[in-house]
Amino acid sequence: MRIAKIISRYALGVFLGLPVLTAVACNNNRPEKECITFEEMKDPTNDTLSDWSHVTAGLHASFISVDDKLPKSVAPEITLVNNVKISGWKGEKVSAQLLLWTAEDIDQVEYAFNDFKTEGNSLPASVAQARFVRYVMTDEFGPGCGHRQPGDFPASLAPDMLDNLECFNLDAKTVRPLWITFDIPSDATAGNYKGELTIYARGQSPHNFEIELEIVDRLLPEPSEWSYHLDLWQHPSAVARVHNLELWSDAHFEKMKPLMQMLADAGQKVITATLNKDPWNNQCFDAYADMIVWTKNKDRSWSFDYTVFDRWVQFMMDLGINKMINCYSLLTWNNQLHYNDMEKGELVTVELKAQSKEYEELWGVFLKDFTRHLREKGWLEKTNIAMDERGPADMKAALRVLELYAPELGVSLADNHKSYREYPWIKDICVGAGNKVSREEIEARRAKGLTTTYYVCCADKFPNMFTFSPSAESVYAAWYAAALDLDGFLRWAYNSWVENPLTDSRFRTWPAGDTYFVYPDARSSIRFERLVEGIQDAEKIRVLRKKYTGENTPESLKKLAQLEEAIAGFGTLEPSSDWQKRLSDAKRLLNTL
Predict the structure, then answer these.
(1) Is the pLDDT of residue 307 over 50?
(2) pTM higher than 0.70 for the full model?
C-alpha cells in the first residue's frame, strides 16, 4: 500500500507558494504517523523522462490557476506565487489550487489553518478545507461514443479525485496538486479577511502562508433554494458492488448517505428510480437492480412490491433531493420486462414492442397500481415516467398507454429526436446540447411550470466533463445554460463506476470519466467541484438579473446590459481560443458589479 501526504480536512484557503521547505526538522513537533493510501497506476507517458536535475532539495509549492491540470511526472516550469486572494459571496464555496513538487521523497505532508480575521470580525479555521488531488488513468475523446479498448487511445494520468486523507507522502520526481475550498458562511460579515496556512512535512521546517479572502456583500441562497435544475443520475448498485455490500441493506444505505448528501448539497433536484428490469440494458459496468418487484400470481392477478422503491425515495428526500422522482422506464433499451411467475415458479423475461397489445396490457396494470401507490405516499405530483433517447414511434405508443392508464403522472424525456416539439406539454424536457430550444419555447414552457434543460454525453466534445477535459468546461456548462435561458443541466451518470474507479477512469464504451463525477467513499473530484462552481455562477446571475430588473434605474439597467453582454458570449458549443480567460473575466464581473 502506498503511503500518502495530506492536508487536514477542514481547511480552505489558498496556499502561498512554498518556495521551498528546507530540510531542517528543528521546529516541526508533529507526531510521526503512517500516511497509508492506495497505489496510483504507473505513469504510461514519456513524462517519466522529464529532467528534474534543476529542482533543488526540499518541498516546493506555488499557487496555480484552478484551470491548470499539470502532469504528474514533469518538473514544473512556473513562476512561484506566494500569496493568494480569493473572492466570493456569502454562502458561496470558492476554490484555489496549490501545486506541490519535489525531486526527493518527502513524507507526512500535513497542513493547518488558523482563523481568518478582519477588523472586528473573524471566521474559524474550520471554514477552510484542503484535499490532495489524486491521479487517475484517462484516455482521449477520439470518435466519442463507441466501443473501445485500453490500447485504442493514448493513455495518461489526469489529476481529478479529491481524496479524504490526513497526511500524504510525496514520491520523488512527482507533483501533487492540493485543492483548497473555502465555505463562506451565509451570515458572514462582508470584508477582506486574512489568515494563515501552515504546511508541515517530516524533516522540514514548518512554513506559513498568507491567505486573503474577500467576502462580497451579496448573499447566495442555500442549495435547496437554487433554481438551477440539476439532474445527475444516481446508481445505487455501483455503490454496493464497489464496497462489497448486500444490495439495499442497512449498510448499503449508510454507505450511500455521504455520497448522495454531496449531490444534494450541489442543488440536485431529481431522484433517479427504476420501474422494472435495468432500463438501459446494462450499458454500465453494473446493471441497475430492481426497485419494484413485479409478481404474476397463480390466479393471474398482479402484485407489486414497492418496499425498495419507497425506501430509496424517502432516503433521498430526507437528504433534501425532493423536487422530482424520475422513473425509468416505459421504454427500456431492449424492450424487456421481467416478473416472478408464481405458477411457473421462476423469473420470466418477456420482450414487448411498444406498439403491441401485450405491452399495453402489462404496463396498463402496473401504471394503475403505481398511481394508486404514489397517491397514498403523497408523491404523485412529483413523479415522472422518464424516457431516454427513444425513437418517435415508440414514444408515441408509450405516451398513448400512459395517457390511457395513468394520466396523472408526469413525463420526463431526455430527447435527441426533437420530440419535445410534438409533445410541448411534457413536464421535464432535456434536449441534446446540439438541439437548441428557442427562448420563446422555453419561456412559454416556464410560464406553465414546465422544465427545459440540456444534456451532454459521449458524443459531445465540448463542453464536457471527461477526466481529460479542461476543468473549466464544467463551469462553462452552466454559463451555456444561462446564455440560452435554459433551466439547468442533465448528465447521465453521477456514480456509474467502472471496474476500478479509484485508479482507472476508462470504460469499454465511452471516453474516460463519462460514467461518473465522484469517487467511492464520498470523494469529490475537480470536475464535480467546478460543476458546482458553475451552478453557483448561474444562481448569482439569477440574483443579479432579478435585482437590476426590479430596480429599473438607468444605473441598474446599465449593469444588467453589461452582465447580459458577458453571458451572451457563452451560448456556443464552439468557443473562441480564449474562452477560459473570458470565463474568468465574466466570473469576476459577478463579484464586482
Answers:
(1) yes
(2) yes
The radius of gyration of the chain's CA atoms, rounded to the nearest angstrom, is 25
C-alpha–C-alpha distance, residues 114 and 128, integer Å: 9
Tens digit of pLDDT for each residue in 167-214?
999 999 999 999 999 999 999 999 999 999 888 999 988 888 899 999
pLDDT at 201: 94
Q: What average pLDDT does the chain have?
A: 92
CA nearest to 320, candidates 267, 399, 364? 267
Asked if 43 contacts 72 with a C-beta cutoff of 8 angstroms, the reply is yes
Q: Quote helix, strand, coil % in the chain, to nearest 5.
A: 25, 30, 45
Helix (H) or strand (E) holding 118: strand 116-118
Q: Is there a contact between 555 and 544 (Cβ–Cβ < 8 Å)?
A: no
Distance CA 576, CA 309 (A): 46
Cβ contacts of residue 90 below 8 Å, gap of 6+? 184, 185, 186, 187, 188, 190, 215, 216, 217, 218, 219, 220
Predicted confidence (pLDDT) per residue in 255-277, tens digit: 999 999 999 999 999 999 999 98
DSSP string, 37-86: EPPPPPP-SGGGG---TTSPSSEEEEEE-TT----TTS---------EEE
Alpha carbon 270 to its chain centroid, in Å, reads: 14
Q: Which helix (H) or strand (E) holds 250?
A: helix 250-265
Do residues 19 and 81 make contact, with C-beta atoms less than 8 angstroms apart?
no
**Geometric angle at alpha carbon 133, from 129 and 138, rounded to 5°:** 150
pLDDT at 164 (0 to 100) = 92
The share of the chain scoring above pLDDT 90, in percent, equals: 84
Distance CA 388, CA 505 (A): 24
Q: Which tops the pLDDT comparison, 11 or 173?
A: 173
Q: DSSP for 173-232?
A: TEEEEEEEEEE--TTPPPEEEEEEEEEE-TTS--EEEEEEEEEEEEEPPPGGG--SEEEE
Cβ neighbours for 302, distance < 8 A, ≥ 6 positions apart: 294, 295, 296, 365, 366, 369
